[in-house]
Automatic annotation (TrEMBL):
Regions crossing the membrane: 58-79, 85-101, 113-132, 152-172, 179-199, 219-243, 255-276, 288-307, 314-331, 343-361
Record-given protein name: DUF2157 domain-containing protein
Coiled-coil region list: none
Keywords, in A-Z order: Membrane, Transmembrane, Transmembrane helix
Length: 386
């Protein structure tokens, strides 16, 4: 920036006149103020999730909750429960309110709530469409469901495909990130349905024998491949979005946050069962030394991946699941010898890890990730601010 003395000499030399000098100073001051404001409001690269927009956003969220709760009770008093008019009215009402709250004011928390209200109303309409198409028997059991094989495809497309389409339409209009998670859950549901239909057709054709009761647990264990593959696919999409926005400043970064939230349990649960040998039906676990080692290695891998991509949203469900179930069996022996309740040790261990990662996340990233990853990889990951 040119200083005042240089500008004064330019005026004396006839290069500038006094009015031009003042105009240049004003322009330079305004530019500096804008840059300072942008730096103050720019989100930090620290697993930023722009969910709450401030006190007014929370205030409006309370208003949205009261408005639609009252509207739901009022509509139920006018229409018969289950009438499609209720869902249509709620969907239209949430869309109209979103035009103001989301499109104009960009309130984050209330916009998320409005999106979920709209999707709930849309799901209700889709379920009603399925009920009108398929006559479900009053005595619903496994054999009755198998008899509906011909309707499986249309039902899946109506529910799963319809939910994805509605979420896409709403996102195209309002850019609400949580809809990425909703679409991912719907796609996972479609994948589950496809796997069930495929297995049913294999049994009918004779390619696979019908399972005996004692084989049911093994079949369910093999079915864990579906959530594992879906979780991995969702995780890869989330990482791809993160790599497109290393500075975490666009809506796609927020979409990646919700995709990580969805993918984490889909990945953790199957891997936990594979590591510990948990019996799927009863939930019993009898881990030996090898299972405990695998469990510890899996937790370490999840921690490293979360640190590398700078996503605590991936780590939080992992710690919660492993902490509530896995660590119980790891510390149960210590509890039996010391007399301390296992639940207390679980709380201490998980609480200490959460505080450690929460308070020193970027410093831990720098200490662990910098030495183990090459510069070419680090340059593609979110910057480490330590």
């Amino acid at each position: 920036m040119i200083d005042d003395e240089t500008l004064d000499r330019a005026v004396k030399a006839g290069i500038l006149n006094a009015a031009q000098r003042e105009a240049l100073l004003t322009l330079a001051t305004d530019t500096l103020d804008e840059q300072t404001a942008e730096q103050a409001t720019a989100p930090s690269v620290d697993d930023q999730m722009r969910l709450v927009g401030g006190g007014n956003d929370i205030f409006v969220t309370v208003g949205v909750t009261l408005l639609f709760a009252g509207a739901l009770f009022a509509l139920r008093s006018v229409f018969v429960e289950g009438n499609t008019a209720i869902a249509v009215a709620i969907a239209l009402g949430s869309w109209v309110v979103a035009e103001i709250v989301t499109r104009q004011k960009r309130m984050r928390l209330s916009s998320t709530l409005l999106a979920l209200i709209f999707m709930a109303a849309a799901l209700s309409l889709l379920i009603e469409a399925v009920m009108n198409r398929v006559n479900l028997p009053s005595d619903l059991n496994a054999f009755a469901l198998l008899a509906l094989r011909s309707e499986a495809g249309p039902v899946g497309l109506i529910l799963g495909g319809g939910l994805i389409a509605v979420a896409g339409l709403y996102f195209f209009r309002f850019k609400v990130p949580i809809l990425a998670g909703v679409a991912a859950i719907a796609a996972t549901g479609l994948a589950f349905l496809g796997a069930v239909v495929f297995y049913h057709d294999q049994m009918v054709s004779g390619a696979v024998a019908a399972p005996l009761p004692e084989q049911l647990a093994d079949i369910l264990a093999n079915a864990l491949a579906v959530p594992l593959v879906c979780g991995l696919a969702i995780f890869l999409v989330a990482v791809w979005l993160d790599l497109r926005d290393r500075e975490r400043q666009t809506v796609w970064s927020d979409c990646a946050f919700w995709l990580h939230v969805v993918s984490a349990p889909l990945l953790v649960h199957p891997l936990f069962i594979l590591a510990t040998g948990q019996e799927v039906l009863s939930g019993q676990i009898e881990p030996g030394l090898s299972a405990s080692i695998l469990l510890g290695l899996m937790m370490a891998v999840f921690v490293l991946v979360a640190l590398a991509i700078d996503r605590r949203s991936l780590l939080a469900p992992t710690l919660a699941y492993f902490g509530s179930v896995g660590i119980y069996y790891l510390v149960n022996g210590a509890a039996n010898t010391t007399g301390i309740p296992p639940f207390a040790l679980i709380l201490i261990a998980i609480g200490a890890m959460v505080i450690l990662f929460g308070a020193g996340w970027q410093r831990i990233r720098g200490l662990i990730i910098r030495p183990i990853l090459p510069t070419s990889v680090l340059d593609r990951l979110p910057p480490i601010k330590a």
